[in-house]
Write a structure and sequence with these properties.
This protein has 228 residues and is an alpha/beta fold. It is 39% helix and 17% strand. It has helices spanning 9-26, 45-53, 64-73, 92-98, 108-114, 143-151, 171-188, 203-208, 218-221, and strands at 35-39, 58-61, 80-83, 101-105, 121-126, 156-162, 194-196, 213-216. Bound molecules: pyridoxal-5'-phosphate. Pyridoxal-5'-phosphate (PLP) binds at residues 39, 41, 62, 84-85, 164, 199-201, 215-219.
């Protein structure tokens, strides 16, 4: 018996897809221009299979110790795996083995640890929009030098910038800052034009500022199982 008022997965997914399509059109782009990464962290592999059966192909995980066995158990799916969490340099080599895209690259030691071996991996350079260095991300003035470092590191391909809107303030303004940084970046690296930004609470704002990759968890999956 389901005593909760939470709608079933397919309804939540359809509702989010509808909102994405609307905001994408409003931003003057086509639905195909936007990739939705469904964030499945803390959820079992069975949920990924349900989402896959509903047509989703891009999934996001954020903790190595959880992602590695989960992704291994889903190797039969033709899915694209995004590692979206903060990444310790000493885990970089393992994470790159099962990830197609790594979103939170934000420092020289991590760039060095990810580069130079194995199949090529796509990365986003994360920008920190807060004054808190604990939040992860390069400072805005580090974007161009770090992008150049990624571009000259074998085995890495820079897709563009990634950001998380700060807890405080208007998300749309934060995303507008990322868009401005992206314009500076693409002036020197036209191919690094993707923008990974927008989560459950702010993806429409992100789309209006040019997001190409949304990272959406709870709006689609419902609340995450508690993780202690
Ligand atoms: C968990 C997480 C998300 C998804 O958050 P929701 O609010 O559940 O959509 C997106 N990006 C990152 C970096 C995350 O860690």
């Amino acid at each position: 018996m389901n005593g909760s008022a939470t709608p079933p997965l397919h309804e939540r997914l359809a509702a989010v897809r509808g909102r994405i399509d609307n905001a994408t059109r409003q931003s003057g782009r086509r639905p195909d221009d936007v990739t939705t990464v469904v964030v499945t962290k803390f959820h079992p592999a069975s949920l990924v299979r349900e989402l896959y059966a509903l047509g989703e192909r891009h999934f996001g995980e954020s903790r190595h110790q959880e992602a590695q066995p989960k992704i291994a158990s889903l190797a039969d799916l033709d899915a694209t795996w995004h590692f979206i969490g903060q990444l310790q340099s000493k885990k970089a080599r393992q994470v790159r083995e099962y990830s197609d895209v790594i979103h939170a690259v934000d420092r020289e030691s991590l760039i060095a640890a990810l580069g130079g071996f194995g199949r090529p991996v796509d990365v986003f350079l994360q920008v920190n929009l807060t004054d808190d260095p604990e939040r992860g991300g390069a400072q805005p003035n580090e974007v161009i030098p770090f992008a150049e470092r990624i571009a000259t590191t074998p085995g890495l391909s820079l897709l563009g910038l990634m950001a998380v809107a700060p807890l405080e303030g208007e998300p749309r303004r934060a995303f507008a800052r990322v868009r401005a940084l992206s314009e500076q970046l693409t002036a020197v690296m036209p191919q690094a034009s993707s923008l990974s930004m927008g989560m459950s609470g702010d993806f429409e704002d992100a789309l209006l500022e040019g997001a190409t990759h949304l990272r959406i968890g709870t709006a689609i999956t419902g609340n995450r199982p508690s993780h202690g």
